[in-house]
Amino acid sequence: MLAALACAALSGIGSLSAEELPRGAEIHITRAAGPISVDGSLSEDAWRGAARVDAWFEIQPGDNVTPRVASVGYLTYDDRYFYAGFEFHDPDPSAIRAPYSDRDDISESIDYGGVVLDTRNDGRTGILFLATPRGIQYDAVQDDANGSESSSPDFYWDSAGSITGDGWVLEIRIPFSSLRYSGGDPQTWGIMLFRNYPRDFRYQFYSTTLPRGGSCFICRENVLTGLEGLPSGDHYVVAPYLSAKQESTPSGEPGAHLVKDAAEGTGGVDAKWIPNPDNALDLTINPDFSQVESDVAKISANERFALFYPEKRPFFLEGMELFSTPVQAVYTRAITSPRWGVRGTGKSGNTAYTALVSDDRGGGSVILPGPDGSSFADQDFASLVAVARVRHDVGASFVSFLVTDREVSGGGFNRVFGPDFQWRPNDTDTVTGQLLYSVTETPNRPDLAPEWDGRTLSGAGLDCWWSHTTRHFDSGLEVKAFGDGFRADAGFVPQVGFHEVYGEVGYTWHPTGFFSKIRTFAFTDPMWDNDGGTIRELVAAGVSANGRWNSFAQVAVWADRWRVSQWWVEPATSREIPKEQLRFVLQASPSMLISQLSLEGALGEEIDIDNARPGHGATLTLGATVRPGDHLALRLDTSRRWIDVRPDEGGPESRLFTAQVERLKATWTFNARSYLRLIGQYERTDSDPSLYHAPVEERSGSFSGSALIAYKLNWQSVLFLGYGDDRALDEDGGLDRTSRQFFLKISYAFQR
């Protein structure tokens, strides 16, 4: 209750009005005088009359200064498309970084540019349309409400680039049918023009100023006027698919020869109807998610809580920012295998909405949360899932309401509802919060989980934070409180039954020389259960820096203490175990050859979660992208974790476990539409069973390999031909083949 009152008090300090939004200069656009073809050349006469934008600002590493290289943008439109053209000058065109890659596979170490469009003109959400000199596209949604950028959504648009004798040229064409805007005439939008220029530093140029320490990004956009007579909607996309798979599995024990199973074929369709520019209706029947690349494996050994993986499936991505709230009450990957789904998304005036209904076959896992950790239960049942959220904007702030419902076939449900909000009282402060209440009747399936015996659970969940940022000083305070009975089966809430208070302060300065930005920081994060017992105590301090070679480094010292359950004792007890660690992150993009390099880790004391013991160990993760040429990219990711502990009976420390993941991805990109991709991923965990209180395998692991040839006209018109090989680690350390698959998919998007 005290946490809710504190959140309410913080929110009552006024609001920044729409008129006070710190917008950039106005850009007036006119209709194109003739046709424009997207070919990487601005030679058409129509570009001569386009709005010219030559006022740019270097916002990093410089502080809104004149850019060191010139950029010019051109904007125009016709009855169907919005156009943006760019002349990016470069004193050394041979230094332009422009490799071939797949869509959205663009890093900070590559030259690219484009536009950010806020077609709602609310200063809150922008769509990024960016491309490289090869025309490789990157599109994403930037949401000021949570400060996140998601590249999961994809849009239909065209781009082409070319390298010239004094730089490079970019053309972008965006169908109005890909955009959501109000029905008024004339239109006023928000817009930013952007250029990424990676050399000794990563230089970022915008068409508007971005003062350091501001509480928002999209709100700084330029004002785009002059759009008249835009299409009124009635657009649709229908994308049917056909796929076939043939799998071979062992005839007997693992390691036996493989026997081919009968080939399987399936089909389905994704459809989108846009009755007007403000609203969209999505339908999916037997959706196919085979185009989603497998997730990079994460080491789950000795983890207290469930691991989060991002959503990538197309059906769920329209208006994805409306699913993003302080409490992760909506996690669409919890809809494991939908038979069908229907979704409506839109906006009327200052009110935006989204509503989704899906029939889930099940087959995945359900998180069973608690104050000290989470576990899983098999989702061995079908369910009907419904999610809806309505958000009303008030100037730079908003209020919102969320409802989720999962109705389990055979009995049981989980219903969650409650408001959330964000207040921006000025240009340096932001207050965000959400209060939810859940009512749950668990399935009568004690064979899957002890708490699933048909019992009724209920509880509230609160997350509220305040952030304050200025040019040099920043601070933040977050309060969380979750009842023991709170559940969000359509979301991702791995911990309940606790109170938490997080506080952080930081100070930043911008020197000249090797480092362009240095920040020192300190934070604390205590946590208690709802009976007042301590779950965690944490104090940390460190320093981070941005520097040459597009580098970032952070070093911090953590003094941590966790409560850990001694579950094997009768009656069960718990103990508090301290943990002091050195944590670090190192990242750099030194050249085109080594375009990405990262190393992060934690060293020092560790906690053996499974057996409630102190220990010593480390977690190290290394990633590197090497590009020997413009067409080939090699990506290596490797992670290793180990813990040494003293046996309960005493003696020197021994190795409890060593867990590792290695993944190599090789991609040969022929052009902007086709590529060949090879992936090999190896996972292994070696444990000492004598050091555990519960039975564990001495050795476990697997290998998965895949090959994929892809051709893409656009993100929904594709041809995939793939091969997969899965193997399991045997007792002797060898790899026995467990399956082999061949895969074919054809999909085509029909549009009007």
Short description:
With 752 residues, the chain is mainly β. Helix content is 1%, strand content 56%. The chain has a domain at 31-227: Immunoglobulin-like (Sandwich).
Topology:
Blueprint (H helix, E strand, L loop, with lengths): L1 H10 L14 E3 L22 E3 L3 E4 L10 E7 L3 E9 L22 E7 L6 E7 L5 E7 L4 E3 L7 E7 L2 E9 L11 E12 L3 E5 L15 E6 L7 E16 L7 E3 L3 E13 L2 E7 L52 E11 L2 E10 L4 E5 L4 E5 L4 E12 L2 E12 L4 E11 L5 E13 L14 E14 L3 E10 L15 E12 L5 E10 L2 E3 L4 E14 L3 E16 L6 E16 L5 E15 L4 E14 L5 E14 L8 E18 L2 E14 L11 E14 L5 E12 L5 E13 L2 E2 L1
Parallel strand pairs: 1-14
Antiparallel strand pairs: 2-4, 3-13, 4-5, 5-11, 6-7, 6-12, 7-8, 8-9, 10-11, 12-13, 12-14, 15-16, 15-17, 15-42, 15-43, 17-18, 18-19, 19-20, 20-23, 21-22, 23-24, 24-25, 25-26, 26-27, 27-28, 28-29, 29-30, 29-31, 30-32, 31-32, 32-33, 33-34, 34-35, 35-36, 36-37, 37-38, 38-39, 39-40, 40-41, 41-42
Give a written overview of the molecule.
This protein has 752 residues and is mostly beta strands. The protein has a domain at 31-227: Immunoglobulin-like (Sandwich). It is built from one helix and 43 strands. The chain has a 27-stranded antiparallel β-sheet that branches. 34% of the residues are buried.
Helix percent band: under 10%
Q: Spans of 5+ residues with little confidence (pLDDT < 50)?
A: 1-6, 8-13, 291-295, 298-302, 304-308
Within the CATH hierarchy, at the fold level, what is the topology of the domain at 31-227? Immunoglobulin-like
Number of strands: 43
Q: Give Rg in angstroms.
A: 27 Å
Which percent range describes the beta-strand content? over 45%
